[in-house]
Amino acid sequence: PEAIFSIDFFEEHPEAFCTLAKELYPGHYCATPTHCFIRLLEEKKILLRNFTQNIDTLEFEAGISRDKVVQAHGGFDSAHCLKCKKSHSPESVKEVLFQNKVPRCGCGGLIKPDIVFFGEGLPRRFHDLSRKDFPKCDLLLILGTSLQVHPFAGLINDPPTDCVRILFNREPAGVADVPPKIDKNMMARIEEAAREGDMQAKTILIQMKMASSNGLRFQLEDNKRDLFHKGDCDNGVREFAKLLGWEKDLDKIIADVVAAFKKKNPPPPPPPPEEAKASEGKEASSEGMAKAISQKLGKS
Asked: Residue 180: which of 157, 216, 212 has the closest Cα?
């Protein structure tokens, strides 16, 4: 539920988030081919920055440099006390959480992983680097997002107007509104009225300008820079890498990342023979019970 990620609810009922956090904690999943493709962009020295809404820190599991990543909604790789603001290691917080306890600071305050909750502002690093980076952007790759959560979703409007933008997604997202069609004579009258100070005419022109500058335009007739690749994100970046002649480079990174994940997270050992036999006995018992019930129902 959304309430679990509310800062007010967390302060009143921290155990609810702490229970969920064990499922969300990094380490359960391997970085995807999409993460690996972003690392490849860095290795090719063309990645300016990777802005992400994800809190799973898989960017770092893929080997992307920390200075290249902006975690707009924070992550589990740092934590602070809400009361005294003291920093706590993510390892110590994880250890307490996995003991089914609520992490607390020496001052008595609650310790929270640095994920952005509802009611909290986004990190300063997000605001500073978005203002710095997007005016320099000449290619914006938008990878697997609904583009519905602001202010993050608004980033697509920040690059220069000649910047190519490519959306890799299962469905269209962040699409610009279709501007109203106004004939030339009517437009001339609106512009003249605006010059003479008519506020309604000025408002119409502002709204039309916003409609023409906000959102992706791949569905509009006047589109000159936006592309949409429909489908799975991982498949999309594989195709993109192939077109760029980087297919083998991407495959190598994926193989390295998967191997590192398996080494770090080996599969659990098989159960001892006694446990296996007991398990088989339970299955046989269940099958016998099901058969007996079925026969009984057949007789009635």
From this structure: 212
Instruction: Find out whether 104 and 125 touch, Cβ atoms under 8 Å.
Output: no
Nearest to 126 by CA among 185, 60, 50, 189: 50
Amino acid identity, position 198: D
Q: What is the pLDDT of residues 88-117, one digit of tens each?
A: 999 999 999 999 999 999 999 999 999 999
- Compute the distance between CA of residue 66 and CA of residue 71 in angstroms, rounded to an integer: 10
Q: How many CB atoms lie within 10 A of CB 58?
A: 21
Run of H or E residues at 91: helix 90-97
Q: Is 292's pLDDT higher than 80? A: no
| Structural contact between residues 50 and 70, judged by C-beta atoms closer than 8 angstroms | yes
- Per-residue confidence (pLDDT) for residue 5, from 0 to 100: 87
The predicted structure's pLDDT at residue 70: 97
**Which residues are CB-contacts of 118 (< 8 A; sequence separation ≥ 6)?**
2, 5, 6, 7
Q: Which residues contact 22 (CB under 8 A, 6 or more apart)?
A: 97, 98
User: 156 near 216, Cβ under 8 Å?
Assistant: yes
Give the whole-angstrom CA distance, residue 112 versus residue 80.
6
Nearest to 230 by CA among 246, 219, 245, 214: 219
Burial class (CB in 10 A: 0-12, 13-18, 19+), 97: buried
Please give the positions annotated as active site: 73
- 151: cis peptide before it, omega within 30°? yes
How many other C-beta atoms can be found within 10 angstroms of the C-beta atom of residue 217? Answer: 18
Q: Is 284 exposed, middle or buried (0-12, 13-18, 19+ CB in 10 A)?
A: exposed
pTM: 0.77
Q: How far is CA 251 from CA 72, 169, 217, 230, 242, in A?
A: 28, 21, 32, 22, 10
